[in-house]
Amino acid sequence: MVHVIEQQEPSAQAAPSLPFKPLPRPNFFLAVRVSHSPAVRQALESVGAALVSHSAELAGAVEPSVRAHITLGLMHLTGPEHVAEVASLLQGPAMAAALRAEGLDRPLTLSLRGLSHFRDSVLYLDVGGGQQPPSPESAAEGAAPAVPDGGRSQLERLMHVLLAQLSPHAYQQGSGVFSPHVTIAKLFKLQTPQGGTTVERCRAQ
Fold first, then answer.
1. Which of 90, 118, 148, 159 could join 122 via S-S bond, C-beta 3.0 to 4.6 A?
2. 155, containing H or E segment
3. Are the C-beta atoms of residues 174 and 185 closer than 8 Å to each other?
């Protein structure tokens, strides 16, 4: 299910710069939650624990598994009425019809793998990888069979449907290149009095 989530802290990824009128700073985002099951949360927690085992200072940067999500779009909403308007569009019949037309009206099966970082400030797992069979839990929920790209193309289609239906309220994040991921740790939360970036110092340990 797609959620409208309020931005609680500054994003490590700035809003895209446009040649004419800059976009307002986002304060909400559209996201697919991936923390809906104990198995998913346990897997994410194991990744976080492995990071802390390697470098104890990362304990303050690891994100709680209950907040795990994949961001699909950004928004600048000006108040409760604006939030309610977007929520109504998200749950409305036009959105349901658009999702159904793209075959996106059922749970997705995704693969998360590979630990990457964004400008030495965010550690994340990429969506993608080889074809994986659906878990018994996802199969019971009626999820579609796994796809060779780990669900990346389905997420991109979902993003385009959402942004089209929610225009002009929502827009794509970053440079316009879709990079679905689940954030594991936010290194910009940490103080680095020793000098150098946290990623560089953790690599050296």
1. 118
2. helix 152-166
3. no
